[in-house]
Fold:
Amino acid sequence: MRAILTRVKSASVTIDGEITGKIGRGFLILLGVGPGDTEKECRYLAEKALGLRIFKDENDKMNLGLEQIGGEVLVVSQFTLYGNCRKGRRPSFVEAADPELGNRLYEKFLEICEELGYPPQHGRFGADMQVESVNDGPVTLILDTDQLMNEPRR
Structure:
C-alpha cells in the first residue's frame, strides 16, 4: 500500500458538488492499494501514519502527534499512486489493485483509523472527487509498505 500524507491546516473532499468529508488541523491521506496488499499491510500503514509525530511543539520541533493536537484525518482513495510513468506519456495503472481489492482495503483502512481513535472523514472509492487542502509547512510524506515493512529496524 502507498500513502501520501500531508500535514494540513484544513482539507475537504467534494463529490458531485457536495462536501463529503472535511477536517481542520490534521492529516490528509491519499491512499493507494497494490495487487499484493492484505489487511496486514493495511493495519501497518494505518498505525504508522496515525502515529507520526510531525506537528511542532513549543520548541518548534516536529514532536507532536495527532493525539496531542486534537487532530483529524481525511482519507481519499487514489489508485493513481500506482501509476507507472516509465514508458510513453500516459501512465499505466496495471500495478494498482483491482477495484474489488482496492475498495475492500480502503474500507478496512477507514475502519482501522476509527479503531485507533481517529474516525476519518473520507471520500468515496472510485468517485470523481475534488480535494482541497491548506498544507501546513508544507510537510508531505510518502509511505510505502513495500519499503517500510522490509526495512531493518534501527
